[in-house]
C-alpha cells in the first residue's frame, strides 16, 4: 500500500505521508514494520520553489536498498532462531544445576557476595547491576543483541527491533550527531526507545571499546563460564552497511562479534574496485588481492571480500563460514558466521587461491591453492587426518593452454564455498510465512536465493573416511562461470543458445547450472578443453564461420585448429608434444550432441538480479526469465513474434513463440521474457506475428553495422535492466552476439553481431553519433541503431550526427529503432499511434510494440526541425554537487529536434521538474512540479510570428502575453496526451498550440482536454476582459518567438527536453528541415 505525500512520491511497500512534530515538518516513510521521519527539504515540499533549494535532506531513505534490508531481516531471523534453539536448553540445564547446588549448600554466602545469575548465565553480585539493562533484555529469555554500525536514519535498527521478536537490544551507531538525533526521534516515534540504543561516534572506536571489557572485575567473574568462551557483552549480530567499502571496519567488527558463531553482515558498494580491473592497487590495499578481468568478475569480487574478512579474522584465531554471498545490482551482501577455532584457521591457506586468467584470449582460467590440505589415513589405518603442506609449482604455464594467449594473475582470494545450502533452505522455508505487505521484495528474494541454491555442484568423490575436519577443508572445486556469448565472440560465430549448450554438456556426462551473479551464465564441472570442443562442434555443425577472415596467431585461429600444427599450449618443458597430442585426441573424439530437450532448465524458476547502478536511488526492480511449452499461456497482446523452426529428420514442424510480459507492482517493474516451443499455433496468430528470418536491417556485414545503445540515464533507469533481462537473451535466441565498443570495422562487419554501447554520462549518445560513419572505411556503411532510451536519445543522435562529405545522405541515413524507456516517449507513441488497438481491446505494452517493430518494421525518413538562437544563449541543466544544486552552461547557436519546441508553461515545467529529486519519479514529476507553476500562472511577455518557408513573410499573432507556446512535430507528448490531434506519423508538418494568460484552473482544464483525445484544440471561453479567448492551433513552416522577460527564470525555451536560456530580447527561430538526418523504424502500416 502506498499513500501519496505532498510531492506525490511513493515507494515499494512503503507508506509515505507528512506529519508535524515539535513544530517541524517531516515525511513519514514506512518500510516493513518501521516508520522513519525524514525532515522536509525545500525540494521535497511542494509549497516551495524547486530552484530555491538551499540545502538537501539531512538524512535520507534509499528505496533501492529495501531488497538488502528485507533480505537481512529474514537472514537474521533464520540465524537467530537456530542459535537460540541451541542456547535455551543449555541455559535451562545451567539454571537447574545452580538450583541444586544452592539447595545443597543452604545459601550460606554473605549477602554482598551472593551472586545472581541472569538469564544468560552471566553473574553479577547482589550489589552490582548490569551496565546496560536495555541490551541485556528481559530476564525470561536469552540475550540477543545487534549492532547497526552505520545506522543513518536507524531504519535497519528499527526493523530489527520490531520484526525480530527474539532481539533484546539493538545498538544504532552513527558518526553524525544529526543522524543520532534522528535515530532517537525515530525510535521514540516507533515506540522502541527501550530496545534501540543510539550511540554517536566512529563505528570502529565503538567496536574496539568492547575489548576493554574483556577482563571483568575479579568479584564478578562467572565460575560457570568456560575459559576462553564468548564474552557476554559482544554482539550476536553486527551489520556493516557503509557507502563504499566495508574493509576498513573488518578488524573492529571481528573484535566485537561473539566468537562462538556470531553473525557478521557486510555490504560493499565499491564494485568499481572489486569487480573491475581498473584499480588493482586499490583492490589489493583494501582486500588483499587483485581483481579478475572478465565476465566472472563479480564472483571474483565476492571471493576477494571474503578473503579480506577471513585473513583479518585469522590473526585472532577466528574462522569464518560464509552462509550467503550475493552480488546484487551494484553491491555485494555477505553473511558470515564467526567462530574462535585455531584448528579451523589452519585450513585457511589451503582454501585461498590465486587465479590465472586468459582475459585477452579465450576467457579460460586456472586456479591454484596456496597450500595443500591433504587428507591421509593415520598410522593405525582406522582413521584419517589432514596434513598441511606446500603446493606444487604453477598449475598452468604463462600462456593459455587452450588458445596460447598470455595469462594474467588475480588473487589471492577465498576458494571455499560461497553459501551454506542449509542456511539458504532455512530462509526459503520461512518465506511463505512472512507477509507480502511487510517484505515487498519477497519475490526477488525467493528468486535470488533459489538461483544461489542451484549454484552448488557436487565436489569430486572422496573415497577416504569422513571426518569433522572435512567441513574445514571444503573448497569450491568449480568456481566462476561463463556465458556462451563470450565464447562465440572469440571464434566469431553465431552464439549457441543456452539449451543447446547445456544439452551438449549434459550429454557428455557433465553437470551444468547457473550463477546468481549474471543472467544467462553457465557454471559447470567440465574442463575448458571440453567447453572449447563443444564450441568447435557448434561451429562445425551449426554455425560455420568464414575461416579466411580469421588471422593466424589469434585465439580463434588456435581454438578452431586452423593451423597445420596447433601450438595452443606453448608448453616446452612439462609435457612432451606426443602426450599433449594424445590428450587432445581424446577430447576430439567426444561425441557432441546439442540436445535442447536435455539442456532445458526444468528446475524451479528463479528471479535473476539486474546488474546496474541507478544513480537516482530508485529501485530498478527485478526480472524473470522463463521457458515454457504451454501454448495456452499465450496472450495476443504479449506476443512479440513467432518463428518457425526447421524440422529435423522425422520430426514435425514446431514454432518458437516469443512473448514479453511487463508488470509494475508498487513502483517495481517485472519483465517476464518467455520463449515457448509449441507444435501448433492458431492461424490468426501466424498471420499476424510469423516472421521468416531476421530483417535485413539487423543483419550485420561489410555493408551494414548494427549497434545497440543502452541509455542508462533515461526515464527511471530501466534501460540496462531491460537489455540484460530481455533484449540480450532475445537477440541471442536469434543468434546475434554482442561486440565490445572498441571493436574495429572488420569485427563489426562479421555477420550476426552487434556493437553494444552502455552510456557512461550525458554526452555518451552524442559522442557515439558523432563517430557514426564519419570517417574512413566506415563512411559508406549503413547503420542500424537500436536505441534503449526516450526522446532524449533521438535528440542526441540528431545533434551528434555529422553529415559525410561526398556521400549519398539518403543512402547513409542511420536507421533508428526505439525501445521506449524514457519518461514521455513522445516520438515512439506518436509514430505508433495508428497501431494501437481501439479502446476496450487488450493492447500491447509500449515495449512489446517496440520489439515487434524492431523485428518486423520498416525504416522511413524522420522529419526534423532546426531551432536557432541568438548570441549568449546557453544550454542549462541542474546537477547535484557537494554544495547542493548548481547549474552548468554551454553556449549554443542551434539545435535539431524531432518532437517539440516550446516557450512558456511547457518549457518551464520541463525545466523546473528536471532535477535529481524530481526525475526519480518518472512521468509523475511533471504533475508534481506543475502544482507550483499553476499557483503562479505566470504570463510570459513575448512576440510570436508565423510564416511559410520564406521567413520574410511573417505575421505576428495578436497578443503579447502568453501562458503557453508549443511547436509540435508529433501528435502526442505522452501516450494519452494528444497535443496536436491533426498530426500524422512522420508527416513533417509543424503546428503551433498557444493560448494567452489564464488562471491555473483554466490551464489545468485545457491540459485535461488534451488528455481527452486532443479536445483542447479550439476551446473557447470568455476572458476577464469580457473578450472571447481560445486555444490557437496553426500550421506553419517558420516561427519566431521573441522573449521580452527581464527575469532569467522566465526566458527558458525547450527543444525536445533540452533547456536553452535566451538573453533578454532574444529570438528563437524554428523552421522545418528539407532533408532528414535519420530514419526511424516504424510499423509497416505507417508507411504502407
Please give the structural blueprint:
Elements: E1 14-21, E2 24-31, E3 34-39, H1 66-105, E4 115-117, E5 123-125, H2 133-136, E6 145-148, H3 155-163, E7 169-174, H4 177-190, E8 196-200, H5 203-209, E9 237-240, H6 250-256, E10 260-268, H7 271-274, H8 280-287, H9 297-314, E11 318-328, E12 331-340, H10 342-345, E13 352-357, E14 365-369, E15 371-377, E16 384-390, E17 408-414, H11 421-430, H12 442-454, H13 469-473, H14 484-491, H15 498-507, E18 512-513, E19 523-524, H16 528-541, H17 555-559, H18 577-588, H19 596-599, E20 607-608, E21 622-628, E22 639-645, E23 654-665, E24 668-678, H20 683-689, E25 690-691, E26 704-710, H21 719-733, E27 737-739, H22 745-748, E28 753-758, H23 764-770, E29 782-789, H24 791-800, E30 815-820, H25 826-831, H26 846-856, E31 858-861, E32 865-868, E33 874-881, E34 884-891, E35 894-897, E36 900-904, H27 905-913, H28 916-919, H29 924-936, E37 940-947, E38 954-956, E39 961-962, E40 964-968, E41 990-995, H30 1000-1011, E42 1020-1022, E43 1028-1030, E44 1032-1036, E45 1038-1043, E46 1052-1055, E47 1058-1061, E48 1067-1072, E49 1079-1082
Parallel strand pairs: 6-7, 6-9, 7-8, 9-10, 21-24, 22-25, 26-28, 26-29, 27-28, 29-30, 30-49
Antiparallel strand pairs: 1-2, 2-3, 4-5, 10-12, 11-12, 13-14, 13-17, 15-16, 18-19, 20-21, 22-23, 23-24, 31-49, 32-35, 32-48, 33-34, 33-47, 36-40, 36-46, 37-38, 37-39, 37-45, 40-41, 41-44, 42-43, 45-48, 46-47
Helix pairs in contact: 1-11, 5-6, 11-12, 23-24, 27-29, 29-30
Structure description:
This protein is an alpha+beta fold and 1088 residues long. 27% of the residues lie in helices and 25% in strands. The chain has 30 helices and 49 strands. Strands 34-33-47-46-36-40-41-44 form an 8-stranded antiparallel beta sheet. Strand 11 (318-328) and strand 12 (331-340) form a beta hairpin. Helix 11 runs antiparallel to helix 12 (442-454) and helix 27 (905-913) crosses helix 29 (924-936). The protein is globular. The relative contact order is 0.06.
